[in-house]
Design brief:
Mean pLDDT of chain B: 81
Number of helices of chain B: 12
Radius of gyration of chain B: 30 Å
Largest sheet of chain B: 4 strands, mixed
Oligomer: heterodimer
Distance between the termini of chain B: 23 Å
Largest sheet of chain A: 4 strands, mixed
Shape of chain A: globular
Strand order of the largest sheet of chain A: 2-1-3-4
Largest interface: A-B, 141 and 149 residues
Structural class of chain B: alpha/beta
Number of helices of chain A: 23
Number of strands of chain A: 7
Structural class of chain A: mainly alpha
Order of helices and strands of chain A: HEHEHEEHHEEHHEHHHHHHHHHHHHHHHH
Strand content of chain A: under 5%
Amino acid sequence: MGVLSSVLTIARWEVKRSFTTLGRNVLPVAVVLFLLLMLATGFTARSGMHLQDGIYSLGIDDPGLSAILGGDARFRVFSGDSGTLRAYRGSYDLVIVEGAVLRPLSERGRAAEKTLERDYARYVSSVYNREQDLFAAYPLWIDLRAVKSELSFDATQSGQYLSLQQRSGESPVPEGTVAVVATPAPQLPVPEEALREGLMQEEGTPDQLRRYTGLFSQEPEYQNFRTPSQLSPPLPFDSIIFVFAFIFPLYFTSQFFMMSVMHERIERKGEVLLASPVAPSVIIAGKMLPYLLGMVGISTAVILAAGAPLTVLLPLFPVILFFLASALLIGMISRSFKELSFISIFFSTVATTYLFFPSIFAQVHVISLISPLTLIVLQLQGEGFTAGQYMYSTALFYLTSGVLFFAGTVNFNAERLFSELAFFPRVREFIAATLSRDHPFRSVFLANILLIPFIFMVQMMALVLFFNLPLPWSLLLLIGAAAFIEEFAKSIGVYTLFFEGDARPGIRTLVLASAATGAGFLVGEKLFLFAMLTQITDSVFGSVLFLQQGVLLLWLPLLLHITGVLAVSLVLRAGGKRWYLPGLLAATVIHGLYNLYFILGWMR
Amino acid sequence: MNARHITIIAKKEFQGLNHEKTILLAVLLQLFVAMFSSFLMVGLTSMYDPSSLSAATRVRYGIALVGANTTLDRYLGERADFQVYRMDLSTGIAALEERKLAAVIYVPPTPPDAREPVQVTLYTLQNDIQTAVVQVKLKEVLLEYEEDLREERRPRLSSTPLDVRFPAGQKTEGFYEFVYGLLIPLLVFMPAIIASSLIIDMITEEYQHNTLETLVSTPVSFAEVVWGKVLACELLVPVQAGAWLLLLAINGIRVENPLPVLFLVSLSSLALILLSALTALHYRERTAAQFIYSTALVVVILVVIAIPGNPLNVIVRAVTGSPGMDLAGTLAIVGIGAMALGYVTHRYAERIGRLAQLGT
């Protein structure tokens, strides 16, 4: 009970403090700015985005046509007679003579042609939309039906998509059972006027905008029926909207927490709080509580405003925790406001990338599930997600937040908070504080277990980055990146604990430390893999990262992990700190060759 | 105002940045974004145009055609990128689920000149990037078929739209408008936004660490301190924006008029930096200043983008080399704006400096 009430007290102080710093001057201005923001949004929506005005030049000989096509601000329209236009064709991006578009000569011309084609199609449909007999103007309607099929990692193993056929006359035969599908009814179930209304509505709004506004709200029934010209390819950029709608406010709010942590360190203001008889964990929990509640509240508001189901909150929660944990550490580590800004911008870019890129491939590939954002996409599409999928995509966020909070709590003391060291020594100090000097081998062992979720996060990012590339490049790059990440992570513990200052540990100590590191790494990896990620580990990409196939014995990977760290530490011992990077690269080469040997052997 | 004092302050700020290695982070960030976007481009182009992946093997998408015989059969058969199979519906869909086909098309027995429309059912894989490719290709075929049907029903139409014929031939999915019309203006303005948030940090730091009194007691005036910080931030902009243009060039994206673009970006960001310096001078506390400034920035960007001929548009036209842009006029307007903001900032800083010396 005592702990809870102290948490609440500190939370109350925190709210009071942030209101006094923001209070008087800021609130009225913020209200005015908010009103201005609404006005500006309205203004921009009315006047449109004038970003790409006049990038293309268009020569037309027919004044009637130029009146119709000139409405697009992207074109600068010039009129002239057909002879001159033909002669000076090179000075325009695109030329229309006697109703025919001349083949464009430049890259910009080809882009202009695409834009013009879209504009022309819009004009043609605006004429047809007003036809009395709608089905004479639009004689063909397409009923789009989506069939679900999730690509497993096996499909990309050959580096090709399965449905790309070679030239052959034989029809494909399904391997599984054939479910009977009813022949679709030949009649449109939607009345003519509803279809016309849909067509008319579309006239005003460009494709892109409609897609985004339609994302949240349920699409009306007629949307499933399209004319051929309405078939627009589903661009894979939808998820960026979710980043803006859900993640951006979270990032913004976490900035306040970051600043509040930093605030305690300015001019040693936090000393009073540290002197009070409560544990650091209680102080952190108390300071964080208002922000946690605020972020959950904001997310709920966004979800309700978007009309999305409240279950979307579930995948957002670990993201909130992760943002708060990182904000805590960033606020504790950076020494000045500038550093705070840069580190937080850097962090937010990396985090956004991690969240955004995989979700582009939502439903295309199981890899997309490593981002909780994908769960949001799935939920909004009305499919929902299973508990297993939830585990799979959020476990890394829960685990890393936990480790970050632990590191923050351990370091939340006067010595660390008010230290004046430079950035890298400070980071090293933070890590060293989590390790115990009295039990060096045990703490190296444990530290490596705790590092595993971070390693997986970075490796996942490398996977997302490289899996787009064709084989074998994707595989080779991934092998190199994965080996480097692992060797770097493993060396952290040994480096911080045994090479402090000018220390030069004995060979025996280093062998023991390397053994502890390797063992910790292996145990952590196995524990983690056991719990999840079976989908990825079964694939060829998975075997690069986690090397499961072909190596059934545990001693071989153990030996590899030990050799890697030992190589780094021996180089460090012989050459000093300047040799850290070469040592790391040497270990990476050893590790990479080992992986390559086993993967190639396994593939053969 | 003493130019030497200003450069001393600017130098001090640079030393601070250098000492903290924050510059290193900024460079890393830039490389990271550049790397990711170029990988994304490689990924997207290879998925939109699978033939670029496997140039030797002829890529064909398997399509199952079910139902009535129409001209659609012929159009599909003529295409080199489709392999058409006549199948029954259930088998076709089962094969589609196993990804042995790219699409299944059902054509009803509706006669072409019927009163009601021909309703074709198109089965594709849900939310698949490959589906996007297939749909684009099928759209061309379906448009041909639609034109045939429309011709049959032509007598029932009351008007015909003006005709424009486009040159025939393969069209590749280009990213021209995306790269030049959106990516480049965003990238070159990113340093401006970073620099303007940097000056808030520099100014509020003096207040919150109580170093202002020490500074004012030196021969350097407070206005000079502010200008020195502005100078330090301003110098970062063309360097970073220039680095972007260089990285783009390495990626094979050629940019016209690089120098005028850099000049315009620097001048616009000077206006932004002065605006945020004013905010910081007013609030003297980082959280409040950053909050107000970033909200105000969104408002400013929204309004600016809605005005025809705005600086961002001028940059887009300059990098694409589109003639007829009013670069000089825009530079003049932005320059006058920056000068006005500079004057206000100067007077404001002078006043604060006087008050600080009086000890209030």
